[in-house]
Amino acid sequence: MASRRHAEAPCHSPVSSAVSGAAAAAARQNDSYYHGSERERELGWTLYEGDDYHSKESIDKMARGEPLTDQDRIPWLLQLHGIIQREITSKANAIVLCSALKRAYRQMLLFGRTCLPSSDSPTAVDGVWFAFLHGPFKLIQERLEAREGHYMSAALLQSQFDTLEPPVDTENAFSVDVQRSIPEVASDIESALSVRL
User: Fold this and answer.
1) Which of 32, 44, 114, 118 could be a cystine partner for 5, CB 3.0 to 4.6 Å?
2) pTM listed for this prediction
3) Which one, of 128, 144, 146, 133, lies nearest residue 179 by Cα?
4) Any domain includes 103
5) Alpha helix stretches (DSSP H) within 47-128
6) Dihedrals φ, ψ of 68, to 5°?
């Protein structure tokens, strides 16, 4: 998750955003556009990379080309939920990179262990937005294969598409097409968030 503190920006409620979708993994190949960059310093963002919070067991599993199960993901999602809550409490704006493929996963990010799998449970939290990155399978596959030094096999992409439940408007979600350069995608996310502050 990244924090966003605009020194000269108008006052607004803190905003947290999760960058989600199968395409989010492909975007990570260039997350250095923000991470430790001049742009990150300008915005005051501290980027939280969701992949950094997977257990060793999950990392080893993905490296072998085995998809994670819901049970594998629960401890990871709860850690990210804790980060989101901490940023909300500190009144900092933030962004986290996390696939959050299913509605149930997004609910856990928002509500932690208290989330309920019922149709009438809340679907959103004020000030928390999901940026849903999407694009053609082939493009995302090419970007994944171009990544260096990452444990997740590109062979897992099909399982991510099979698992994917795109977010709906009631989840405070907006879509971002990744068929553009990484700086352009990042700019689209910034613009979408700015009109929601």
Assistant:
1) 44
2) 0.78
3) 133
4) yes
5) 56-63, 70-89, 103-111
6) -80, 150
d(CA 154, CA 85): 31
How many domains are contained in the chain? 1
User: Could you tell me if 181 and 143 are in contact, meaning their C-beta atoms sit under 8 angstroms apart?
Assistant: no
Contacts of 187 (CB under 8 A, 6+ apart): none
**What mean pLDDT comes out for the span 112-117?**
75
Contacts with 89 (C-beta within 8 Å, 6 or more apart), sequence order: none
93 falls within a domain: yes
**How far is it between the farthest Cα atoms of the chain?**
48
Query: What is the CATH number for 157?
Result: 3.40.50.300
**What is the residue range of 90's domain?**
16-194
- Summarised one tens digit per residue, pLDDT across range 57-98 is 999 998 888 888 999 999 999 999 999 999 888 887 778 888
